[in-house]
Structure formats: structure tokens, C-alpha cells
Amino acid sequence: MRATHRHPAERAVTGGAGIGRRRRRALLPYLAAVFGAGGGVLAACAAPGQPGQGGGPPAGRTAAPVTVRVMDRTGSEEEVYPLRVPPFQEANPGITVAYELSPEWGAPKITALAAGGGLPDLGHVLVNTQDYHAFLLQGVLVPVDELVRRDRLDLRQYYAEAVRSLQVDGRLGGLPYRGYMARIALMYNAELLKQAGLAAPGPAWTYDDLATMLPRLTRGAGEGEAAAGLGIGWSELTTMIAVFRAWGGDVFSADGKRATLTAPAVGAALRWHLDRALRERSLLLGVGSANPQRSFSEGKLALWGRNNPGTAGNLVPLRDQLNWGMTLMPRGPGGRRGGMLQSSAMAMTRDSRLRDQAWRLQQWLTDRETGVQFALASKGSLTPGARPDVYADPRFLGRPDLPPGVQETARRAMDEPEPFGLAWNFRGNEVDRLLREVMDRLAGGEQAPEAGLLQDLERRIQAVLDQPRAGT
User: Fold this and answer.
1) Strand-pair partners of 97
2) May I ask the CATH class of domain 8-179+344-413?
3) Smallest Cα–Cα separation from 177: which of 349, 44, 361?
4) pLDDT of the residue at 225
5) What is the largest CA-CA distance in the chain?
6) CA–CA gap between residue 245 and residue 144 (Å, rounded)
7) What is the dihedral angle through the alpha carbons of 437, 440, 441, 442, rounded to the nearest 10 degrees?
């Protein structure tokens, strides 16, 4: 059976199956070299559910034909769903999957559908925005703990921190879908490093090494993007948590209940970055019209940092124009690189009347094979499934259109001690707005990171943290 397409936006996505077939054909010689002529990948598509060939729940038959609806965003999903849905349907006779992909899918769409009783059986829900947690508390999402126990699903197949990030008061509201170590990757332009007489940074480098490199990578004649040697994102909550963690600080306490912006490590991290951005002009902060990704893609920046490893996918089309590589951010004075393990959830909604069938699909879409296929996509983010066996898969590690070592760097990033951690009351979006306002002013030189400013910011964020949980 073929997947049905119901969402109006899906008309723009129906060509995804063809894209997936072209990608698969392009990779066949590589995959054959990895797995031999017997081809474990093709076998996974032809005989799903076999041990070691795609994972997923065991095949099953329903009493009467049913249709399970799942909604997701566009991007790499346009290639992965046409690859993974047909073998699921073959393994589960009587279940048709209607996947609806839309660029509008997200928290606002979920909220609107929840109000009108039109939620799909399953949906992809982001965790880093904390909308997932609010939806679980509101009852929009269905806990799966009883199903996990009933089927003895081994949650150890996912990264433990990814599972933890989906738990609220001991309840698990979904299964880890895609996962990555956020804001820990740094891309480098190998040609610009060579011109400066510098080697590519290795795993052991530090912020002291970076400080020594930057003057040699900064072009004295010129201003702004063309002058800086390093560009990074700035202001946004997850990015600033990563920045502060490298110095031993954070926005929140470990339990997410206290704001910690007056800690000495936070001030030290801000001064290091602002000194190089405003005085040396060796650092480009991504605020306003400044765009580190664009500058790096155009060959103007030697280093582009505080990325997610999956953003390497944005550079794949430039492989004939840009000689680039990827490493991890340096270790800071606090002994850490800074980052945050993040995942998204494949979650069941309260409107599902086909929970056993949806549960089978929920497991399938979070299995090893689906996670690998996301990493092999030719468009969108390369973020794979949130599973160690995906990150260790030879197809993930050896993707042929990426520079050597890029995927191994992404795998090593998952082992860094950078846990998921946001506001205990799931009001991260409110904290983000307050933080952005002040960080933007600092980056523009309108204010300095003085004690009074940080005390006021901490007080305002603490006022948010003192409120009850969002969604209750």
C-alpha cells in the first residue's frame, strides 16, 4: 500500500519519493562497499523488522484496515517518509500511513489543531522550545509509559539524556526522534587557515589557542563580516547557555529553578567575547544583519562556531567551492566546551483513537534505520536519530559527500558532558526574550556587561522562574 497525502501543502512534497530514490541510487556504490553485495540497507527496506535490519516493532495485523495519521515538518522528512513508510505498511498489513508534511508544522499548528479536535495520531514535537513539556502537561500528548512497560521496550536504545529530556514528573510523553549536541560544532575554512599558516584545530584545543589564532585570521583592512576571523550565533537562550558553560557558568541552576547570571563565570565569558567583537574586531556576533553562516559560506570567515553538527548539511552543496572541515568548540576555562544535548519527540496525541497502531509507527519512526536515513538525506538538517547505534552506524560515519571526520566529530560530541537543561516551569520562551534583549544590546556596544546590568537581568529572569509551570 502507498502512503496517502492529505495536507494541502503535501502537493509540494509528493515528489519526495523520487528524490529519495535518486539519493539511494547515488549512494548504492558506497553502501555496497560498506555492506557487500548482499546490501544490509536494501534488505532493511525489503524485509523490515528483521533483527539488525531497521529495528522497529514486530510485524502485526490489525482486525480491520485503519489509517494512522502523522504530521511533521518539511526538509529531510520529504525524503525519509517515502523511504520508511512503505516497509512499515508491508510489515503491518491493514495499517495505512497518511503522512502530512508542512513547513507550518510546529507549536502554533499543534495548538490550533488541539483546540479544534483535529490532531493527528502522531506528531513531531520540538523539545528545546519546551512546547513539548507544556503540551504534555496540558494533556495534548499521551504518556507512553504503560506501552513501554507492556512491550518491554528497551529505552537504552536511545541516548539516556534524550529520554530524560522528554520526562515530566516521571512521565514519558514520546520517544526520542532526532538528537544532537547543540551549539558545540565549529566549521573551519581549510584554505584560509593555510593562508594564515595555521593548522586545523584538533580535539584538545582551548580558548587560549583560539585567542592566539584570531588575530592571524582577522583581516585588518575592512570592517564587519569581512574582517573577523570567527563568527558565532549570539543572544538566543541555548547559544548563551553553551557560551557560559565553557567558562563554568549557565543561565540556570541545575534544577532550572534559579537564574545564575551574576556568577563570575558568566561575566568572564561575556567579557571574552565582547572584547574580541567590539575591540579587536576578530569576532563576528550573529545579531542584526550580521550572518556568520552566510559569511562562512562565501569564504569570508575562517571559523564559524557554536553550530549544531547537523548544519553541515547546509555546506554539502558547496563542497566544490569551499574546502571546509568540522571540529568541536575549544575547551574553556571551566574545562568544558559548552553545548546542550537536545532531541525532538515523536509523540502520540490525545485525539488518536488508534493507539496500538500508532504506537507501532511511533517505534518504527524512532528506530535505527529511520535515524540513519535522516543522516543520509540530501536536503535540510543532517540531524540523525537520537540513538547511539545510529551515530555508530558505518553509513552515518562514512557519508561520502562530507569531509573526512565530520561525522565522527558529531559522534564524539554526543559524549560531551553537556546535559539538557532549561527552565523548570517550561517558560524558556519567556526567558529567551529577556535574554535576547540584553545580549543584543551588549553585542551592539550599547551597554557593558557590568554587575548592575547582570543583576537586573538575573532578577527579571528569576521573576519568570518564580511563576507556575506553563500549561498548568
Assistant:
1) 68
2) alpha beta
3) 361
4) 53
5) 73
6) 33
7) 120
Determine contact, residues 140/132, Cβ cutoff 8 Å.
Answer: no
φ, ψ of residue 350 to 5 degrees: the values are -65, -20
Give the three-state DSSP class for 254. Answer: coil
Amino acid sitting at position 190: A
Helix or strand (DSSP H, E) at 193: helix 190-195
Residue with cell 495519521: 69
CATH value of 185-338+423-465 in 3.30.1360.120, 3.40.190.10, 3.30.70.141, 3.50.30.40: 3.40.190.10
Per the DSSP assignment, residues forming a β-bridge with 344 are: 126
β strands within 160-316, DSSP E? 167-168, 171-172, 175-182, 185-189, 230-233, 283-286, 303-307
Which triple of cell numbers denotes residue 398?
A: 562514512
Q: Which of 375, 345, 381, 377 is nearest to 362 (CA)?
A: 345
Beta bridge partners of 340: 182
CA 301 to chain centroid, in Å, comes to 23
Edge to edge, the sheet with strand 185-189 lists 283-286, 230-233, 303-307, 185-189, 324-328
Alpha-carbon 83 to chain mean position: 21
- One-letter amino acid for residue 396 of the chain: F
User: Which residues are 341's β-sheet partners?
Assistant: 181
Burial of 186 (0-12, 13-18, 19+ CB in 10 A): buried
Please determine whether the domains at 8-179+344-413 and 185-338+423-465 fall in the same fold group of CATH: yes
% of the chain beyond a pLDDT of 90: 80
Low-confidence ranges of the chain (pLDDT < 50): 1-58, 221-222, 224
By the 10 Å C-beta count (0-12 exposed, 13-18 middle, 19+ buried), 394 is classed as middle
**Measured in whole angstroms, how far is the alpha carbon of residue 72 from the centre of its chain?**
15
Based on the number of CB atoms within 10 Å of its own CB, is 386 exposed (0-12), middle (13-18) or buried (19 or more)? buried
Q: Which helix (H) or strand (E) holds 125?
A: strand 122-126
pLDDT digits (tens, 9 = 90+) for 108-163: 999 999 999 999 999 999 998 888 999 999 999 999 999 999 999 999 999 999 99
- Per-domain boundaries in the chain: 8-179+344-413, 185-338+423-465
Torsion sign, CA atoms 231, 234, 236, 242:
positive
Helix ranges restricted to H, 292-341: 292-297
* Mode of pairing for the β-strands spanning 230-233 and 303-307: parallel
Percent of the chain with pLDDT over 70: 85
**pLDDT tens digits, 274-319:** 999 999 999 999 999 999 999 999 999 999 999 999 999 889 999 8
